[in-house]
Amino acid sequence: MFERKIFCDECRNDVNYTVENAEMSGTLKGETYTYSGKIARCIDCNSEVYVDEINDYNLKALYDKYREKQGLVSLDVILDIPKKYAIGKRPLSLLLGWGEQTFTRYCEGDVPTRQYSEVLQKIYDDLEYYEQMLEDNKGKLKTEAAYKKSRKAVDKLLDGGSCENTEIDSAIKYLLNQCEDITPLALQKALYYIQGFYYAFYKTFLFSEDCQAWTHGPVYRDVYYRYRDYKFDPIARNDKVDDTLLSSSEKAIFESVAKHICCYSGKVLEKFTHFETPWLSARGELKETAACDRVITKESIGAYFDSVKEKYKMINPNDIKEYAQTMFQQI
């Protein structure tokens, strides 16, 4: 059940709702496709209700099935290319000799033609193919910095490493640079708040990773194992961070969370999350101290932080401050 209420046509009232998985079908370009979707239902009369986020989820699932059946590059692959090669969306379009906004449109859900799809899939699969394209077309890039950044990522991949340029890695590096004495517990909660508030302001989830409803609040499992040896001690500070690699929206959320969330201890932030719907809903009937690895769904995080943004009339990420102060007063 979600905290944000939705209007029910049957009850003629704003109601809470539940979300269930369902097999659905839809038609694209004259052909019908079956896919796994979600349905939101009014908790009072069980009628189906319309929720923007659920509709977006189902639309993406339908297009994913269409891409799969047509043999077209998936949206997940498209979104991963800039991360893999440390290159922006517009520079990548220029590198490919496309219109400057073309790749951005594909990231937003437009389906590429088969010809463009094959190019994108090959870029993703074939490191050497991308490297050759980068060298042949570097003159099309507007700045030398864009070339150098991508070249560095390619060199690291060629050496058998990973460029570690995922959004969650970028967020961790930023927080470890900006925040003093941040413990693994506090880091986990900061990442959760970045995920939630980024969605509230920009209507997309920054991290592909799911967090789980552990005893001490939301936890990203891989991040836990990365820093578990620190236990209750602060994680070593990251003295080097290149914030030019961040988008303006990422930097705005990271900065506000670092300033207004990370000023509280991990134990205080744990208490924050224990009052919030996503963690409570994921754990359900479990006792607070019970071990649990249930996923806190992105849908529940999105719905909750949407409601927070609306309730506190947030205009920009700096308004996170009021929510944090209110939560602190409540505990």
Question: Can you give a write-up of this model?
Answer:
With 331 residues, the chain is an alpha+beta fold. The chain is built from 15 helices and 8 strands. Helix 8 crosses helix 11 (248-260) and helix 9 (184-202) crosses helix 14 (298-311). The longest helix is centred in the first third of the chain and has 19 residues, at 52-70.
Key terms:
331 residues, 8 strands, alpha+beta, three-stranded antiparallel beta sheet, Ubiquitin-like (UB roll), 12% strand, 52% helix
- The helicity comes to 40-55%
Beta strand %: 5-15%
What are the segments in which pLDDT stays under 50 over at least 5 consecutive residues? none
Compute the number of structural domains: 3
Shape: globular
Query: Topology as H/E string?
Result: EEEEEHHHHHHHHHEEHHHHEHH
